[in-house]
Amino acid sequence: MANVLRQRSRLCVAAKLVNLACSALPALVAVAGLAQQPSIAVFELAHTPLMATEVGRTELKYLVSCALPQGQVVKFSHAGKAYELPGAMGLAPGWLKTRMSADDERRVSACVFARTNFFGVPVMLSMRSEAERQAEALGPAPAASAPRTETVPAALQADAAERAEFSRFEASYFGNMFAAKPVAYVCGPTVGKPGTEAWQAHANWLTSHERVCTLPSAKRDGLTRCGFVHVGECTPANLRQAGVHYHDSAVAVFLPAAHRAAAAAKRPVRAP
């Protein structure tokens, strides 16, 4: 039976936010406690222009879901309609009391980026810490050595059953959507250059799971289909961009290793 952490780290993606990196969210959205229920805390969202459009409300939905933990709900109303946005991942729980720190901004941004879906369809995935993924790839650390990474947030931990079911690494997402000039990056496994047999096999696997945000755009040079900058393999050097090291805030996504035949037939992909 799936435990709470597993349920929180396997979230569905149902937003088509192709230009997410170009739509910065406010650095601070103030909230104030409204009511306390036995297991749910409800807060009111201060006014933001994002409330006025469907795309903006979708961005708020995923922002709240990534930042706040389960049991906390943000509500607001627009044009006479009430909305409620539940928390889930809890990557920046202090946001209710104070401005997000730079680390919080980067971690929440990575979570939102990782949940972006080009097709706008729900997909089950496993979200984990990129820092932990790299540490595991290096093997067990000597007992006397210091931990290689900071404490991994509970929502980015996965139990053995989840790791077995979602065993193939898709990519890691990082950046900062709150910055004055928002940045959104992705890195991935080594699969060869576009057009090669290895790349085509990887692209077909991604498409079978309806996860193509890491594939290159045919219309925008240097960007992926979802507007991310693909920096190549997930090396420590590539996780440092413009003087900022995203090693501890990047979110790694894992998918089932097998293809989903029905989806692959529905959305074939070719190298651009």
Properties at a glance:
disordered N terminus, 7 helices, 272 residues, 4-stranded mixed sheet
Description:
With 272 residues, the chain is of the alpha+beta class. The chain has a domain at 125-266. The protein contains 7 helices and 11 strands. It has helices at residues 4-9, 54-67, 102-114, 130-138, 160-165, 197-208, 261-266, and strands at 31-36, 41-45, 72-78, 81-86, 126-129, 168-176, 183-188, 229-233, 240-241, 244-245, 251-255. The protein has a 5-stranded mixed β-sheet. The protein has a 4-stranded mixed β-sheet with strand order 1-2-3-4, with helices on one face. α2 crosses α3 (102-114). Residues 1-38, 141-149 and 268-272 have low confidence and may be disordered.
Fold blueprint:
Blueprint: H1 4-9, E1 31-36, E2 41-45, H2 54-67, E3 72-78, E4 81-86, H3 102-114, E5 126-129, H4 130-138, H5 160-165, E6 168-176, E7 183-188, H6 197-208, E8 229-233, E9 240-241, E10 244-245, E11 251-255, H7 261-266
Parallel strand pairs: 2-3, 7-8
Antiparallel strand pairs: 1-2, 3-4, 5-11, 6-7, 6-11, 9-10
Largest sheet: 5 strands, mixed
Q: What amount of the residues lies in strands?
A: 15-25%
Q: Extract low-pLDDT stretches.
A: 1-38, 141-149, 268-272
H/E order of the elements? HEEHEEHEHHEEHEEEEH
Arithmetic mean pLDDT: 79
Number of separate strands: 11
Q: Please give the alpha-carbon distance between the first and last residues.
A: 42 Å
- From the spread of the alpha carbons, the general shape counts as globular
Structural class: alpha+beta
Specify the number of helices: 7
How are the strands of the biggest sheet laid out side by side?
Answer: 5-11-6-7-8
Radius of gyration: 19 Å
- How much helix is in the residues? 10-25%
